[in-house]
Amino acid sequence: MDRLEAMSLLVASVESGSFSAAGRKLGVPLPTVSRKIADLEAHLKTRLLVRSTRNLSLTDAGASYLPSCKHILELVDEAEAHASGEYSVPRGELTLSAPIVFGRLHVLPVVSDFIATFSEITVRILLTDRNVHLIDDHIDMAVRIGNLPDSTMMATGVGSIRRVVVASPAYLAAHGRPKTPADLEKHSCVSFSVLASGPTWTFAESAEGHGKSVRPFARLSVNTAEAAIDAALAGVGLTNVLSYQVARHVSEGKLKIVLQRYEPAPIPVHILHTGQGPLPLKMRRFLEVAAPRLRKSLANDQAFLSGRRSADRGS
Questions:
Q1: What gap in Å lies between CA 24 and CA 211, rounded to an integer?
Q2: Cα separation, 11 vs 5, whole angstroms
Q3: What letters, b where the CB count within 10 A reaches 16 and e where it falls short, cover 285-309?
Q4: pTM for this predicted structure
Q5: What residues form DSSP beta bridges with 124?
Q6: 80 vs 77: CA distance, rounded Å
Q7: Residue spans of alpha helices (H) in 145-280
Q8: Most exposed of 26, 85, 116, 146 (fewest Cβ within 10 Å)?
Q9: Which domains does the chain have, with CATH numbers?
Q10: pLDDT value at position 306?
Q11: Can you list the positions of beta strands (E) in 162-266?
Q12: Beta-carbon contacts of residue 294 (< 8 Å; ≥ 6 apart)
């Protein structure tokens, strides 16, 4: 019995939720998956899985055995990476995660140039506003927006973004500009549930950046930043978003930033990776390429938005 293969099939079955899904993922016929896991259980003299017509669940023995399987398979992968030259030549698949809009606007252009330079590296990007678990989700590196909790992850800072309130020129011409966060009670607002912008918006009330929360009157509530921005462009009202999400619209004059003096403290942006073991060359090269590129693009965004805010205040 090939125990490594059986361990791989067990892990894939649990992660996929069924033998058939694991077989499709690994290119192994369903009967082979079932037989090899049964052989593994016979070898261990214990039952690892409880099978039903709908799903799989781990027994107590299986729940104890599975983490060891994952660890063993990771060690094998690392040993093979060393042997194949992944640590001396940049090659292999690089899996990245980033927030949806940030990834599309800032990460994808960097990746496009990166794969053009390093022909032996392929890249898989997972764009999601969920904070993925790098090890459990098999992610090499992730771009994170926000303050980081203490962890074993290694973080490379690449800049910061701001949370801004914007509205269309037509809306502001018709309803006027809010002068303070309290003025939002008199305005039509668009809120969305993703990230920090929901029914409560946070502002700085002092030079030290201490937060003040305001619950504006939401004429419209949506579940994505893109929809909130589209509504603001259509003149529905003001919305509270991240600066990179509206940089293009502000540059084109389609949206204007208001309440600048009450903006909360900048939000940091980092590239994360696990701190375990030597860093494969494909990841080191990506950091070398991505970090300065992201720093420059974020700095350009902030410089432009600051200049635009000054121009708006003077108009």
A1: 50
A2: 10
A3: bbbebbbebbeebbeebbeebeebb
A4: 0.66
A5: 95
A6: 5
A7: 169-175, 225-233, 243-251
A8: 116
A9: 3-84 (1.10.10.10), 92-159+267-302 (3.40.190.10), 163-265 (3.40.190.290)
A10: 67
A11: 163-167, 189-192, 201-204, 211-214, 218-222, 238-242, 256-258
A12: 106, 107, 110, 143, 158, 159, 269, 271
Helix axes 281-314, 108-117, angle to 10 degrees: 140
The per-residue pLDDT of the chain, averaged, comes to: 85
Instruction: Compute the distance between CA of residue 111 and CA of residue 108 in angstroms, rounded to an integer.
Output: 5
pLDDT digits (tens, 9 = 90+) for 207-250: 444 557 888 888 898 888 889 999 999 999 999 999 999 988 99
CB atoms within 10 A of CB 210: 11
In DSSP terms, 155 is beta-bridged to 272
Higher pLDDT: 101 or 234? It is 234
Euclidean distance between CA atoms 6 and 3, whole angstroms: 5
User: Which helix (H) or strand (E) is 294 found in, with range?
Assistant: helix 281-314
**Residue for token pair 């084109």:** 252
Q: Report angle CA 287, 270, 231 to the nearest 5 degrees.
A: 120
**Contact between 139 and 95 (Cβ < 8 Å):** yes
Paired tokens of 111: 């990746």
Look at residue 213 in the predicted model and tell me its pLDDT. Answer: 82
Q: What angle do CA 14, 16, 22 make, to 5 degrees?
A: 95
Per-residue pLDDT, 35? 92
